[in-house]
Amino acid sequence: MVATENSIIVTDKAKERVVKLIEEAGHGDDPSYFLRVSVVGGGCSGLSYKMDFDNQLKPGDQVFEDKGLKVVTDLKSFLYLVNTELDFSDGLNGKGFTFNNPNATRSCACGESFAV
């Protein structure tokens, strides 16, 4: 992994899965769509990750590109997501996206929520 200061890093597996999901959602031919990542209150540790597809930038959005994948987050969420790596696992121990967040002080067993 190449260290990138103050950004959101995407692994090759995560990129492949996001591209496939964008295509399945019918947006594969529309380059205006991107991955929106945010942090919302909730989950057993207090904060949860949220991901969806969007094609509208909002004031204050932080825009990143890694491996050709455009990732956007709002400024408040970015404060929690600085230098976080988005990965995807399809192994026997669980399938899905994971966030390797160096800012999290603890996370729940399911890996879907965290605290700082």
TrEMBL record:
<dbReference type="InterPro" id="IPR000361">
    <property type="entry name" value="ATAP_core_dom"/>
</dbReference>
<dbReference type="GO" id="GO:0016226">
    <property type="term" value="P:iron-sulfur cluster assembly"/>
</dbReference>
<dbReference type="InterPro" id="IPR016092">
    <property type="entry name" value="ATAP"/>
</dbReference>
<dbReference type="GO" id="GO:0030674">
    <property type="term" value="F:protein-macromolecule adaptor activity"/>
</dbReference>
<dbReference type="InterPro" id="IPR031108">
    <property type="entry name" value="IscA_plant_cyanobact"/>
</dbReference>
<feature type="domain" description="Core">
    <location>
        <begin position="8"/>
        <end position="111"/>
    </location>
</feature>
<dbReference type="Pfam" id="PF01521">
    <property type="entry name" value="Fe-S_biosyn"/>
</dbReference>
<protein>
    <submittedName>
        <fullName>Iron-sulfur cluster assembly accessory protein</fullName>
    </submittedName>
</protein>
<dbReference type="InterPro" id="IPR017870">
    <property type="entry name" value="FeS_cluster_insertion_CS"/>
</dbReference>
<dbReference type="InterPro" id="IPR035903">
    <property type="entry name" value="HesB-like_dom_sf"/>
</dbReference>
<dbReference type="GO" id="GO:0051537">
    <property type="term" value="F:2 iron, 2 sulfur cluster binding"/>
</dbReference>
